[in-house]
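Budget justification aside, the reviewers requested a transparent look at the raw inputs and outputs of the sequence design task funded under Objective 1. We therefore reproduce one unedited record. The lines immediately below are the C-alpha cells for a 359-residue chain.
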C-alpha cells in the first residue's frame, strides 16, 4: 500500500522560538550505512583538504589558527572538518570560542544536540547548553550552518530529505539477506499425526536437538507425518538490481560519482574530469560557504579592521594541476591589453599564492 502525502514545509516561519538539531537521529544513518560514512568522510576531506590565507595579517592569522588545539590534539583543519561533517549531517554545528583576554585563541567543538538556539524575528539572541543551562551570546559561539534557506537562522540537513531513500536502502539489504538465508536454509512446515500440544512439543524438541538452528520450522497437526520445504522463487527478480538502483539515487543526491569512492571506471582522463565535474562544483560551493563562516566569525573578530581572507583548495586537485591552472592564468593575464603595472600586480599576487614570492 502506498500512502501519498502533500509536500509541505516541515517548519513554518515563527518569529520567536527555540531550535535544536537532530544530530543523533540523522547520524544513525552513518552508523548503519557504510556508504554514507564513506561519502561524508570523503566530502569533508575534499572540502578541507588544504587552505591558504591571503591579504594583510595573514602570517599572524596563520599562527593563531596553527596554534589551535581544540579539545586536546586537534588542529584547526581537523576542527573545521569535524564541524563540516556535523553540519552536513544535521544542518548546524557549534564550537565555543576560547579567548585569552579579548583575543580569540582556540575553538572547542560542542555536541550539536546539546545546544539550543533561542531566536527572535529570525535572529539568534543566545545559545543555551541544554544539560548545564549555560548561556552564550551569539558572538561567543562559532556557528556553522549548512545552506540555510529563506529567513531560517539554522542550516539544513543533507540526510533529512534522504531519510526514506536510506530506509529503503537498508530494507533492500535486509530483504536480500533474508532471501539468501531462505535459499541456503529453506523454511519448513512439518505436519504431525496429533493435535496434542505436549506431543507436538516433544516432536519439536527432537528436531531442535538434531538441528540447533530450527530456522522457520512450523509444526501443524495432520493425519500423516509429512515434511516439505518452502522455497522462495528467485526467477524474474534480482534483489541486487534494486540495491544498485537505490545506491545510484544516494550517490546522485549527494553529488558523489563512483570514481570519487574508488569504484566505477573511466575511459580517459577527460572522461574522468567530466564525471567528477558536478562533484567538484558541489565541493567548491561548500568550500565558499566554509570560507564565509571563518572570515565573518573568526578572522574579522581577530582583525576587525584589516582581516585576511581564507581560501580552501579545489576538491581533489593535485598539486601539479593547481600549478598548471595558475600558470595558464598568468599567461592569460600577460596577454591582456592593460598597463604593465596592473599586469605585474596581478601576476605578483598569483605568484605569492603559489609560494614563489613573499610579502
Amino acid at each position: 500500500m502506498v500512502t501519498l502525502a502533500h509536500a509541505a514545509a516541515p517548519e513554518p516561519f515563527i518569529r520567536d522560538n527555540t531550535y535544536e538539531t537532530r544530530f543523533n537521529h540523522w547520524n544513525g544513518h552513518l552508523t548503519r550505512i557504510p556508504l554514507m560514512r564513506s561519502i561524508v568522510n570523503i566530502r569533508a576531506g575534499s572540502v578541507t583538504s588544504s587552505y591558504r590565507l591571503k591579504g594583510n595579517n595573514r602570517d599572524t592569522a596563520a599562527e593563531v589558527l596553527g596554534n589551535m588545539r581544540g579539545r586536546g590534539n586537534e588542529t584547526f583543519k581537523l576542527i573545521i572538518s569535524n564541524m563540516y561533517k556535523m553540519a552536513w549531517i544535521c544542518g548546524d554545528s557549534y564550537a565555543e570560542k576560547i579567548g585569552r583576554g579579548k583575543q580569540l585563541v582556540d575553538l572547542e567543538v560542542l555536541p550539536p544536540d546539546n545546544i539550543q538556539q533561542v531566536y527572535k524575528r529570525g535572529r539568534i539572541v543566545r545559545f543555551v547548553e541544554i544539560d548545564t543551562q549555560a548561556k552564550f551570546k551569539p558572538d561567543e559561539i562559532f556557528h556553522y550552518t549548512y545552506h540555510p534557506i529563506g529567513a531560517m537562522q539554522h542550516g539544513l540537513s543533507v540526510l533529512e530529505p534522504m531519510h526514506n531513500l536510506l530506509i529503503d536502502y537498508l530494507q533492500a539489504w535486509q530483504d536480500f539477506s533474508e532471501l539468501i538465508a531462505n535459499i541456503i536454509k529453506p523454511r519448513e512446515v512439518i505436519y504431525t499425526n496429533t493435535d496434542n500440544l505436549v506431543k507436538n512439543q516433544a516432536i519439536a524438541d527432537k528436531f531442535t536437538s538434531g538441528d540447533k538452528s530450527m530456522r522457520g520450522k512450523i509444526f501443524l497437526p495432520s493425519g500423516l507425518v509429512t515434511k516439505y520445504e518452502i522455497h522462495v522463487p528467485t526467477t524474474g527478480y534480482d534483489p541486487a538490481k534494486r540495491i544498485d538502483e537505490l545506491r545510484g539515487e544516494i550517490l546522485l543526491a549527494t553529488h558523489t560519482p563512483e570514481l570519487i569512492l574508488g569504484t566505477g571506471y573511466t575511459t580517459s582522463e577527460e572522461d574522468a574530469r567530466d564525471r567528477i565535474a558536478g562533484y567538484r562544483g558541489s565541493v567548491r560551493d561548500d568550500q565558499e560557504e566554509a570560507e564565509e563562516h571563518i572570515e565573518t566569525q573568526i578572522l574579522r573578530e581577530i582583525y576587525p579592521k584589516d582581516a585576511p581572507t581564507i581560501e580552501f583548495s579545489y576538491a581533489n586537485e593535485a598539486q601539479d594541476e593547481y600549478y598548471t591552472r595558475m600558470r595558464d592564468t598568468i599567461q592569460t593575464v600577460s596577454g591582456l591589453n592593460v598597463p604593465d603595472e596592473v599586469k605585474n600586480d596581478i601576476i605578483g599576487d598569483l605568484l605569492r599564492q603559489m609560494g614563489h614570492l613573499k610579502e
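The mean pLDDT is 79. Residues 15 and 121 are 4 Å apart (CA to CA). Computational costs for records of this kind are itemized in the attached budget.
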